[in-house]
Automatic annotation (TrEMBL):
<dbReference type="InterPro" id="IPR040079">
    <property type="entry name" value="Glutathione_S-Trfase"/>
</dbReference>
<feature type="domain" description="GST C-terminal">
    <location>
        <begin position="108"/>
        <end position="237"/>
    </location>
</feature>
<protein>
    <submittedName>
        <fullName>Glutathione S-transferase N-terminal domain-containing protein</fullName>
    </submittedName>
</protein>
<dbReference type="Pfam" id="PF00043">
    <property type="entry name" value="GST_C"/>
</dbReference>
<dbReference type="InterPro" id="IPR036282">
    <property type="entry name" value="Glutathione-S-Trfase_C_sf"/>
</dbReference>
<dbReference type="InterPro" id="IPR036249">
    <property type="entry name" value="Thioredoxin-like_sf"/>
</dbReference>
<dbReference type="InterPro" id="IPR004045">
    <property type="entry name" value="Glutathione_S-Trfase_N"/>
</dbReference>
<dbReference type="Pfam" id="PF02798">
    <property type="entry name" value="GST_N"/>
</dbReference>
<comment type="similarity">
    <text>Belongs to the GST superfamily.</text>
</comment>
<dbReference type="InterPro" id="IPR004046">
    <property type="entry name" value="GST_C"/>
</dbReference>
<feature type="domain" description="GST N-terminal">
    <location>
        <begin position="18"/>
        <end position="105"/>
    </location>
</feature>
<dbReference type="InterPro" id="IPR010987">
    <property type="entry name" value="Glutathione-S-Trfase_C-like"/>
</dbReference>
Amino acid sequence: MSDLSGFPIAARWPAQHPELLQLYSATTPNGVKISIMLEEIEHPYEAHRIDISNDETWTPEFLSLNPNGKIPAIIDPDGPNGKPMALFESGAILLYLAEKTGKLLPVDPAERYQTIQWVFFQMAGIGPIFGQVGFFNKFAGRHYEDKRPLQRYVAESKRLIGVLETRLREHGRPWIMGDDYTIADITTLGWVRHIIGFYEARDLVEFDTFTHVPAWLERCLARPAVQRGLLVPKPRR
């Protein structure tokens, strides 16, 4: 049996199956990237729900796994050289799982790096900007009298959706990389779903004026593994 005793987080969130990959997460756009990936590649795992509303990511146990205090994070008991390994940052975890299993990342070097560039596009652009729209449209920022920050982030969000629209429109691509669904789609779909849903900004970003992005999102959400992954981790009883 795998020994996770060297990881303080395992004391607070004990593993029932320590031989499985341990996922510490929540059902946020960044969190569901990993549960969707694990469901898509059919990799056995055990999920632990981290309550970000109660600041559980700032507990000593969680910070021992991710000093940046953000979900998701994993412990793979079967890491490189067969040794347990901890990893944080959703993009890094996606790349790790793709390379570990040989799935959802092209083998061809040029296509591989093009896929990675679209992962970075989401990490550096879509995630941070859409998150600001959420703050200024739905949360504390909505009370600010100065609406210029909201307007700035809405405009940039529309531009970013436009970049994705152009990418999908070119050559009639069904997925970001063309005919093959990859980690580029997984990393992006949760954020696009979030801005028009949870962040209540569908009209603000004029989502329905786009054609290819809405159709792409529907294809993503129709995938059984995506539907399962969006529900992980399950609420605590």
